[in-house]
Every structure is written in structure tokens, then in C-alpha cells.
Design a protein that fits this description.
about 140 residues; alpha/beta; Rossmann fold; 5-stranded parallel sheet; 5 strands; globular
Amino acid sequence: MYQKILIPIDYDDESSWKKALPAAIDEAERHGAELHAITVVPKILRLPNLPENYGSGACDHVKAKVEKIVADHGGKASVVAREGSIYREILKQAHAIGADLIVIASPKVDYLNELMGPNVSRVVRNAHCSILVVRD
């Protein structure tokens, strides 16, 4: 049923992948689908007093971290690192690869009325494909 599965991973936040990554790997294996991972680095401000290439290695650094996380869990995924708005970059990547499933973790929140984090809810509302929300 699924051919391309996308999972967003924040290497610095274990809750973004601890339960969601095994679910994504399982779905990919069950359906013979390609697994893709995305990690998003917040946009780095270009201030006049900083060097021109300030922050240039950030995407490469986080991409390597995510590749290790996926490999450590026995998965094989194409990993991309983007700079920008988290939910927008997830949605752009889902369109770019033609994803038919996004597996995303929903973080625990501190207040009762919030059911999902803001990025998760925006992805769920705006995605063109099916979403599997893995609750913490």
C-alpha cells in the first residue's frame, strides 16, 4: 500500500524518534516501501558581525547524527537535512519525494488542552498524504 514513507527526526530530541522510528521501519518493511528521513535546522540568522560562512556545517552535522540513529535501529533511509521552518520543510519534502505516508511523533505536552505539538498539528492539517501519529 505505501511506497514512500517519510519520518521527521530531531536528533537532539529522543521523543521525536524513540517510538516513531521503529513504527516507520516496520511499515516500510511490511509494505516494501522506501524510508526517507528529514531533519530540520532552524534558520540561522545572518548578522553583519558574523563570518559569511557561519553555520555552514550545521545541516551536514545533523544529517550525520540522524543517519546514525536510523542505522542503530536497523533501518535504511535516505536522509536529508534542511534549514527553515520545521513543518514547512517536512511538507515540502513529503511533496518532493511523493510520500504516501508520514510517520510523526506527537510529544507529551505540559498543558491539558494541547493534544499535539504545533508542528505535528500543522503537518496533520496540511499534508497531502496519510499520517501516522505515534503518541508518546
